[in-house]
Amino acid sequence: MPEEVTLYESQWLGLYRKGHWDYARRPNADACVGILAITEKQEILLVEQFRIPVGKKVLEIPAGLVGDEPEFRGESLAQSASRELLEETGYQAGKIEALLSSPTSAGMTPEITHLFHATELKQKNQGGGTESEDIKVHQIPLEELRRFLSQKASVGLLIDFKIHAALAAANLRF
Predict the structure, then answer these.
(1) Which of 97, 131, 143, 144 is catalytic?
(2) Which terminus of the chain, N or C, has fewer Cβ atoms within 10 Å?
(3) CA 18 to CA 3: how far, in whole Å?
(4) CB-based contact 99:116 (threshold 8 Å)
(5) pLDDT-derived band of residue 39, with 50, 70 and 90 as boundaries?
(6) What would the pLDDT profile of 60-106 be if each residue is shown by its tens digit?
(7) What pLDDT is stored for residue 108 in this prediction?
């Protein structure tokens, strides 16, 4: 395998080359977590936020980077998932279990996405993310999810594929 050459690196993103292949990597994190959070009433928790790279609002499962901030380095994947769920949605998971791990975009980044299923949820606050985030939380009954996603897509929101991947991995139909 050829040596890695740094083409560009900022605090949040690096561009690298190995042989003939250029790719992106986060210098401060090599993994992310996504959380399929289902309430006792069979409602899925989704988050909506504007994403600069695509220039649109995106509807997603709660998610976040692993170890990207000094105070969270050394956290387990499950701890990161629990923290991100509480931060973004205001819900704390009584039970969290791994669903699957997969490359985020294997041709562009070595990042691995780890999906978790969170249950036994207790609302602790309103969520919404950190002060640098503007996250809107949605609590949708699973039987209404298909209609909800279609409606959001019809008004221009992008629907993140991890919603469908997490539901399939948890063997949940909607």
Answers:
(1) 131
(2) N
(3) 6
(4) yes
(5) very high
(6) 999 999 988 878 788 999 999 999 999 999 999 999 999 999 999 99
(7) 96
Task: Tell me the C-alpha distance between 159 and 149, whole Å.
Answer: 7
The pair of structure tokens assigned to 47 is 């988050």
Structural domains in the chain?
29-169 (3.90.79.10)
Where would I find the beta strands (DSSP E) of the chain?
4-9, 14-18, 21-25, 31-37, 43-51, 56-60, 63-65, 91-103, 112-123, 136-141, 158-159
131 is catalytic: yes
Q: What is the mean pLDDT of the chain?
A: 94
Q: Which residue has the tokens 């009954």?
A: 141
Neighbours of 157 (CB within 10 A): 16
- Note the pLDDT of residue 155: 97
pTM above 0.85, yes or no: yes
Q: Determine the longest span between alpha carbons in the chain, in angstroms.
A: 52
Q: Which uninterrupted H or E stretch holds 88?
A: helix 77-89
- Closest among 80, 85, 98, 87 to 37, alpha carbons compared: 85
pLDDT at 162: 96
